[in-house]
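quick q for whoever's on today - can somebody do inverse folding on this one?? i tried earlier but teh output was garbage lol. tokens:
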């Protein structure tokens, strides 16, 4: 087998496996003579695809808004089945309360909007259709907001359409387990 001297720049053709010094310098670590530009290109394409996949996963699951619909009972002037629901701030009028029973407990949302309260009162029904915006991140539900009451749109995702001061939660009765309202 012939040895290759560094000062030799021409191809020594003693047998089929002989390479010039320049060829040896261009060889990759695995012994292949594939050009380095091709390796760099393959690496760049692979890294780009991984980056696009990661961004897609984050973009699709990072922050979602879903809509939940319920038929809920209405209580005016803060008079709910479990007792009075006070105003959020001192000096405010008593809120209108939307509630539904879950097990022995209640999920409720109270709001203070004279226009919306009068519309619900005028309908004369004890049950109204209520929609909530439920915000989730990577499948874990977080906060929720009132979306609409009886067809009147209040908020669409993070965009507030009508300024309705709302608050709510869950009233646990008889050692019932929390259910995660809305």
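ok took a stab at it. sequence:
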């Amino acid at each position: 087998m012939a040895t290759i001297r560094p000062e030799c720049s021409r191809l020594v053709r003693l047998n089929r496996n002989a390479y010039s010094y320049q060829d040896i310098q261009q060889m990759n670590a695995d012994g292949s003579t594939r050009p380095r530009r091709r390796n760099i290109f393959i690496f760049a394409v692979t890294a780009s695809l991984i980056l696009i996949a990661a961004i897609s996963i984050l973009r699709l699951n990072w922050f979602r808004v879903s809509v939940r619909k319920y038929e809920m009972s209405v209580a005016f002037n803060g008079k709910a089945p479990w007792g009075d629901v006070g105003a959020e701030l001192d000096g405010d009028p008593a809120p209108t309360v939307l509630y539904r029973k879950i097990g022995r407990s209640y999920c409720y949302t109270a709001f203070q909007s004279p226009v919306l309260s009068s519309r619900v009162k005028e309908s004369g029904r004890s049950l109204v259709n209520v929609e909530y915006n439920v915000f989730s991140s990577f499948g874990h539900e977080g906060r929720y907001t009132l979306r609409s009451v009886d067809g009147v749109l209040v908020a669409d995702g993070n965009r507030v359409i009508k300024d309705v001061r709302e608050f709510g939660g869950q009233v646990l009765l008889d050692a019932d387990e929390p259910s995660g309202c809305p």
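fwiw The longest strand covers residues 64-75. also The chain has a mean pLDDT of 78. so keep that in mind when u check it
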